[in-house]
Amino acid sequence: MKKTYHVNEKGYYGTFGGAYIPEMLYPNVEELRQQYLDIMYEESFQKEFKQLLKDYVGRPSPLFYAERLSAKYNTKIYLKREDLNHTGAHKVNNTIGQILMAKRLGKTRIIAETGAGQHGVATATVCALMGMECIVYMGEIDISRQAPNVARMKMLGAEVRAAKSGSRTLKDATNEAIRDWISNPVNTHYIIGSVVGPHPYPDMVARFQAVISEEIEWQLQEKEGRSYPDHVIACVGGGSNAAGAFYQYLDDERVNLIAVEAAGKGIHSGESAATSVLGEDGIIHGSRTLLMQTKDGQITEPYSISAGLDYPGVGPMHAHLYDSKRAEFISITDDEAMTAGLELSQLEGIIPAIETSHALAIFDTRKFKEDEIIVLNLSGRGDKDLNTYIDYFKL
Amino acid sequence: MNRINQKLQEDKKLLSIYFTAGYPSLNDTVGVIEDLEKSGVDMIEIGLPFSDPLADGPTIQASSTQALENGMTSEILFEQLKDIRKTVSIPLIIMGYLNPMMQYGIEAFCLKCKEVGVDGLIIPDMPVDVYHNDYQAIFEKYGLINVFLITPQTSEDRIRFIDSISNGFIYMVSSAGTTGAKNSFGNTQETYFDRIGNMNLKNPQIVGFGISNHETFTQATHKAKGAIIGSAFIKHLTTHGTKTIDTFVNSVLGKQ
């Protein structure tokens, strides 16, 4: 059998993945598992999905040759402009897909979790578009530090519910969303925001995000006369933008995959989110994967200056890419990321999300050859992070 | 014979109580167990606290957070339980999530359970197929009974499969929702209790989630073999401390 880094028929990537869920969730997850592929590949679904990506999201997103950045690092760097999508990041590719899935499953009520608020906004947006009830769970602490995104969700008609348990951040918001789903098993669809959670979520979200690498293939063919780069670089929190950028190249070993994690204040500082290095095999949110935890198996709270990267786990696909050494994993500190964000702003006129700045920061340490072709997934725009940039650089 | 199986043969409706180990204070675990037995409880579920208890409502979440702040760990729990069989004879079950047990090592965890005299495990987020393929042999080697959950949404085929791989009792979740007390059961629950009661399963059923007092205990055990109370007991501990456990148990059994 050909070696593959895609999910197997049981929902595993190597030993990672699966569906470690309480029986109360089994019917919901099983319904989705049985139907997601059939629904996704129906002609009418694909037609509607592609139409919305084009007319509503604004796809295809450009593949931009970053000439001044390339000159500085003496290599060829293309930026995949997911920051130009409606709502400002790649997140909406998944929420468009899942809202169409929810409609076809006959669901009338949508729940979601959000950390910094990007996925919450992307979910509230598609719920407004489809006229669906929308409840977004958000950690109490995140609500107070991400006020503009809370206001956006409210303006879009969503109800934002505070997760007050545990550490009151993203992982607890995810717990609360799962508990809501347990209590509302029939009419509700849970739109998970990343390639995490029980099977089939990691695979389903990756397939919706795969549009990123599908476009890279033909865009690169046009520009370079070949459909694959030498390296694909993406930042990883839960890992959805990386999953989308890697997807078409997972089994194409000509392409080196580079996942960039947040080292926070330094990997061994005690304030970090570098899950591949610091994590251990375990169970989080229904998935077997690498996660940051105590020796006793209690899940710990990660830290990064970027609110989109501080998830204590990582998607099972990425855990497997790390474990099997298929992908290169690099950790970038807060300071390195902030510097790289400023640099891209001034070299290319693009202010990136701080998540993306982590990916951009690798050029200072990881050298590439002059004739190598690199695609870096510019996962989001920096508008949401302006306050953090202002505080950091005293602008 | 495992103490759980022996208890299930008794000709009475069983009252099982759940509490979180290390709550209200770290060293309350053994005292709570002893008082529950003295008060006439038939079986005890000792909750191993977890940082992210997905199936639990606010009451048990809060007690777990407190127990972890008190310093509870798997190792400390086993240390606290090491002489428990000198004073307690009713069945003891550890209820906890899979991740802490994985970090301890599943086999090492099962061995410890056997050593201290724990009779079974309830692990809500352990998939049925993972147990069947990877862990069943280990559980059986150490004489442990694994208890699976079913809910009103569980299909008949799946209930029959779960029945076939169970060797103690089936934990019947009363309604869609996380743990937490309700005041009464409606028609939906009555129909569900009847439906399961009429399936003639080989394993007896014990109802949990939403049992809080004599009324709900009686309703739940009309068809089922017993019922489990968790959140309502935790609330009692929170409000009244560990001194009046018998008052709580008597009120549930209608003996006040």
From TrEMBL, chain A:
Molecular function in Gene Ontology: tryptophan synthase activity
Keywords for this protein: Amino-acid biosynthesis, Aromatic amino acid biosynthesis, Lyase, Pyridoxal phosphate, Tryptophan biosynthesis
Reactions mediated catalytically: (1S,2R)-1-C-(indol-3-yl)glycerol 3-phosphate + L-serine = D-glyceraldehyde 3-phosphate + L-tryptophan + H2O
InterPro entries with a match to the protein in the record: Trp_synth_b_CS (IPR006653), Trp_synth_beta (IPR006654), Trp_synth_beta/beta-like (IPR023026), TrpB-like_PALP (IPR001926), TrpB-like_PALP_sf (IPR036052)
Residues making up the signal peptide according to the UniProt record: none
Superkingdom per UniProt: Bacteria
Needed co-factor(s): pyridoxal 5'-phosphate
One of the record's GO cellular component terms: cytoplasm
Role this protein plays: The beta subunit is responsible for the synthesis of L-tryptophan from indole and L-serine.
Matching PANTHER family: TRYPTOPHAN SYNTHASE, TRYPTOPHAN SYNTHASE-RELATED
Protein name as catalogued: Tryptophan synthase beta chain
Source species: Kordia algicida OT-1
Automatic annotation (TrEMBL), chain B:
Keyword annotations from UniProtKB, A to Z: Amino-acid biosynthesis, Aromatic amino acid biosynthesis, Lyase, Tryptophan biosynthesis
UniProt key word Ribonucleoprotein: no
InterPro entries linked: Aldolase_TIM, RibuloseP-bd_barrel, Trp_synthase_alpha_AS, Trp_synthase_suA
GO MF term set: tryptophan synthase activity
Pathway the protein takes part in: Amino-acid biosynthesis; L-tryptophan biosynthesis; L-tryptophan from chorismate: step 5/5
Family: Belongs to the TrpA family.
Transmembrane portions of the chain: none
EC code: 4.2.1.20
Active site, UniProt feature: E45 (proton acceptor), D56 (proton acceptor)
Group of enzyme by EC: lyase
Cellular component, GO annotation: cytosol
Catalytic activity, as annotated: (1S,2R)-1-C-(indol-3-yl)glycerol 3-phosphate + L-serine = D-glyceraldehyde 3-phosphate + L-tryptophan + H2O
Pfam families per the UniProt record, alphabetical: Trp_syntA
Presence of the UniProt keyword Lyase in the record: yes
Role noted for this protein: The alpha subunit is responsible for the aldol cleavage of indoleglycerol phosphate to indole and glyceraldehyde 3-phosphate.
Subunit structure: Tetramer of two alpha and two beta chains.
Gene: trpA
Listed PROSITE patterns: TRP_SYNTHASE_ALPHA (PS00167)
Name this protein carries in UniProt: Tryptophan synthase alpha chain
